[in-house]
């Protein structure tokens, strides 16, 4: 008799649990269908969203504005492009080494580089500091400091210490180095490299501009020594 009572109690408890489970499934299904119907009606313009959702909608709009700015092509493409902050351009100049090396002085760059209006020493600086001002024809003015100069290894290294207008990056250190070509079809001519190490905040436009200007200057250098 007791065993039968236990079975009845167990059956009743299980039935209640199953009833709750089925009821919850039904309620959940109704909620999902209701949400879908409301969303469809709002999308179709048949009904308006309740006023109490206005603040949430405004917040969503702001979130999307920020998200659009972050995911815009200008921002995402720049972050995807692997950037190298080192630039090197080179050329073979069809002129004797001594003729080319004679022009590789910061204060003499205007003698061959057509983009420069003038290149001159900056007065009033320390006797131990060599600073040259490059005034470009487009109005840009750079002051560059000679960091190294070797008449043995034939190179100069300089850094940009000021710019008008201001640069879009923090710093850049460049080196112009010459080699005498001693054999082969270019024997008696000059091989020149012009490198640049830019700070990590230099973007793709700055790097491409540096490459273009070096190529342009090297082409002008070749023309200048060819006239001799």
Automatic annotation (TrEMBL):
The answer on whether this UniProt entry bears the keyword Acetylation reads no
Give the superkingdom in one word.
Eukaryota
Keyword field: Membrane, Transmembrane, Transmembrane helix
Pfam families for this protein: Polyketide_cyc2 (PF10604)
Q: Which residues cross the membrane?
A: 21-42
Which InterPro entries does the record associate with it? Polyketide_cyclase/dehydratase, START-like_dom_sf
Signal peptide as annotated in the record: none
Protein's name in the database: Bet v I/Major latex protein domain-containing protein
- From which organism does this entry originate? Fusarium ambrosium
């Amino acid at each position: 008799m007791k065993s039968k009572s236990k079975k009845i109690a167990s059956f009743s408890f299980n039935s209640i649990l199953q009833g709750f489970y089925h009821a919850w499934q039904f309620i959940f299904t109704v909620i999902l269908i209701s949400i879908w119907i409301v969303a469809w009606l709002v999308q179709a313009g048949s009904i308006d969203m309740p006023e109490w959702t206005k603040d949430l909608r405004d917040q969503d709009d702001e979130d999307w504005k920020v998200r659009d700015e972050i995911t815009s092509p200008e921002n995402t493409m720049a972050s995807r492009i692997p950037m190298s902050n080192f630039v090197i351009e080179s050329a073979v100049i069809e002129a004797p080494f001594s003729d080319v090396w004679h022009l590789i002085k910061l204060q003499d760059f205007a003698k061959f580089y057509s983009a420069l209006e003038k290149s001159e020493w900056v007065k009033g600086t320390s006797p131990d500091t060599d600073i040259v001002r490059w005034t470009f024809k487009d109005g840009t003015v750079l002051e560059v400091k000679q960091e190294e100069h070797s008449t043995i290894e034939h190179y100069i290294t300089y850094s940009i210490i000021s710019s008008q207008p201001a640069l879009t990056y923090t710093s850049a250190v460049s080196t112009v180095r010459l080699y005498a070509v001693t054999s082969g079809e270019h024997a008696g001519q000059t091989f020149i490299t012009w490198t640049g190490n830019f700070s990590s905040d230099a973007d793709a436009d700055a790097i491409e501009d540096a490459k273009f200007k070096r190529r342009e200057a090297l082409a002008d250098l070749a023309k200048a020594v060819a006239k001799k």
